[in-house]
Amino acid sequence: MEPLTPESWLGIAAGLALAAAAGFRVFVPLLVLSVAARSGWLPLGPGFEWIASTQALVVFTTATLLEIAAYYVPFFDNLLDAIATPAAVMAGILASASVMVDLPPWLRYPVAIIGAGSTAGLVATSTSLLRLKSSTLTAGVGNAFLATFELFGAFGVALIAVVVPFVALIVVVGLVAYAIRRLARRSVRSTPRQGTT
After folding, report:
1. Which of 24, 162, 173, 194 could anchor a disulfide with 150, C-beta 3.0 to 4.6 Å?
2. Please, which residues have CB within 8 angstroms of residue 12's CB and are 6 or more apart in sequence?
3. Beta strands in the chain (DSSP E)
4. Packing angle of the helix pair 117-138, 165-190 (nearest 10 deg)
5. Would you give per-residue pLDDT tens digits along the chain (197 residues)?
6. Is 30 in contact with 95 (CB distance < 8 Å)?
7. How far is Cα 51 from Cα 35, in angstroms, rounded to an integer?
């Protein structure tokens, strides 16, 4: 087995960062990826060339605009989270697999499915819980601020993933650590204490 090249590590870093961006907004990283590939900034792996097509760009742009607008509708955004979380996992897997061009298929897909899918799922679950808490505490009024933060997060992480993947990877590690800590804290709070009735 040959050691991974620096280009391979760059692909992994970019893929995981794009997956994290999908956890914020499903279609934003796919749109950024499509634009980057069309401009020749980012190569796509074999079988993923369609992401750079005009049809894909139109679909990703339309879907991104609809997704952005939907998250500014109070309480509908909570319903959307139930659909968006599994969709974010799929988008994260797709985006990451498409940019890991220097990895052999036997390694590319496990990294995309396990690493990128988990990353997207953790970020999406964490933001869903934050939105649920915001809905409870502010009757949905505070959700617009959260939606704006997520939107900037999605575009920011996706753009960094394309331009400086290793920096994006550091951001992703921070996001995943935050999500795990938040989910663990929620799990501890929801576990009934022994000896209580």
Report:
1. 24
2. 4, 100, 103, 111, 115
3. none
4. 50
5. 567 787 888 889 999 999 999 999 999 999 999 999 999 888 999 899 999 999 999 999 999 999 999 999 877 887 888 888 999 999 999 999 999 988 888 889 999 999 999 999 999 988 888 888 888 888 777 888 989 999 999 999 999 999 888 887 787 788 778 777 766 776 666 655 555 44
6. yes
7. 9
Residue 140 φ/ψ region, left for φ over 0, alpha for ψ in the -120 to 50 degree band, beta for the rest: left
Run of H or E residues at 129:
helix 117-138
* 76-99 and 6-24 helices, crossing angle to 10°: 170
User: Which structure tokens are listed for 143?
Assistant: 């959700």
Rounded-to-integer distance, Cα 62 and Cα 59, Å: 5
**CA nearest 66: which of 35, 25, 36?**
25
Q: Give the tokens for residue 119.
A: 């990353």
Contact by Cβ (8 Å): 21, 153? yes
User: Tokens 């929801």 correspond to what residue?
Assistant: 190
Q: Is the dihedral of CA 108, 109, 114, 116 positive or negative?
A: positive
For the chain, report the end-to-end CA distance as a whole number of angstroms: 57
Which position has the token pair 């900034």?
41
